[in-house]
């Protein structure tokens, strides 16, 4: 395993990045339920990495428990009728997460952008439909920017969330840029449409002159 300073004593298991994300969320609190983790992921992680389902979260928690990086216990409600499982990071889990952050290779971001793919195939698209897709994406980017800004503002009141708050401000700038890129592409497509129209007009005029 790994000692408390993050020094490798034995090789740590190769876990998917999503497992490290869940373990990282556990490092922010003494205990969290699966519902808490889902809520925290939707509050922060979804803006830049992952919007998980409950089944994904519980699968990763099970994996983390198997490796001794997390523990769980059942907490029964006051009426004794309901119980929920609470999860906590272990010392070896915190050391493993620290080792992953500091020493594991950093994966290059992979951009899989369906709007850009459709624009790339714009010669097959109906012009008005392409404009509609881009305008919808502009609205989406603005909505995400506002949500990220609100969450960043909320995180600032808690000093324990200084790093997530800083990342959320990065997300705000990302969605501002995403909106601008889509608006620029929309303007470029309008220019292309005007050029095509002029070429068609010139071609029609030349055809008439030849007769």
Automatic annotation (TrEMBL):
<feature type="domain" description="Transcription regulator PadR N-terminal">
    <location>
        <begin position="22"/>
        <end position="97"/>
    </location>
</feature>
<protein>
    <submittedName>
        <fullName>PadR family transcriptional regulator</fullName>
    </submittedName>
</protein>
<dbReference type="InterPro" id="IPR005149">
    <property type="entry name" value="Tscrpt_reg_PadR_N"/>
</dbReference>
<dbReference type="Pfam" id="PF03551">
    <property type="entry name" value="PadR"/>
</dbReference>
<dbReference type="InterPro" id="IPR036388">
    <property type="entry name" value="WH-like_DNA-bd_sf"/>
</dbReference>
<dbReference type="InterPro" id="IPR036390">
    <property type="entry name" value="WH_DNA-bd_sf"/>
</dbReference>
